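pasting for the record
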Amino acid sequence: MIKVENFDLTPLNTFRMKARCACFVEYGSVAELEAMDWDSLPKPIRHIGEGSNLLLTGDFRGTILHSGIKTIKYLDMGLGDVPVMVGSGVHWDDFVEQVCGYGLWGAENLSLIPGETGAAAVQNIGAYGVEIGDIISGVTCYDLHARKRVKFSREECGYGYRDSFFKQTGGRFIVTGVLIRLSRIPRMRLEYKGLKEIFADKAPAGPMDVRRAVIDIRRSKLPDPAELGSAGSFFKNPVVSAADFARIIDISKRDFGEDVHIPHFVQPDGCIKVPAAWMIERCGLKGAVQGGAAVYEKQPLVIVNASGSASADDVLALEQRVIDAVRDRFGVTLSPEVEHLG
């Protein structure tokens, strides 16, 4: 176990915000969590991964926990389904690269998403037609209230769009392991336009082919957090009713002409998901600058630390500017996907 007081959190957030916490604890096993003197730790207590979906808005007066559980255990390497128990501290894309190399299907569309596996299960990360909730069978946790180990089935995890049961419980449950169910049988998800075009003439030979295609698409659109600070997609794509979408169509035709095309995705319940990036760009905010922060010029869903020294106030001001502009034009209120902590 590692315990440090007055810890610098700058390396643990991909936005590169400068902030500190009163205490930082990295544990290497569930047994270390069980042996922790919880009453002695500064409160509140929060858990983070690599900070790839986090905006630190200031110093944190409590304790930050971080997982050092990096085990990967293949429970069955036979035919058909292959369950894999993945430690919460495993870097997600390292795991995806490994299983794709083994020829296992299921995680390939989620390639190159930054962060750790435990945080991925909490956030229900998703990309290119797949969410991690689609391939999770269960999650093991440590219950901070009851001070004991607990398990949740996939159904109990309550997965929704960038949401889960864990996000509604105030950090009560610390994810320690994620049971991922992969397959030796090809289960390709190529509905996303970019992937469909790449594999239109020749199907992928294996999951590694899909992984490479996903990586190429992501790199063409999204900044590398190692080079340009960001937290990935900053806003959730809004899901609206059919009536609200009809209103968006009317507004768009009025403002942009009768031939305007609005990308959209009909959901199983009849509601419609509209890309936030399209709305932000139509509001003229692609590349918009606020202090040291900016809306990324290649993908307006992303806010970046353009100067390398942007403050949290710069990012918060730009966030509100985007929300106000989209609401004023389309009548839709965007919600941040990025968690704010400070």
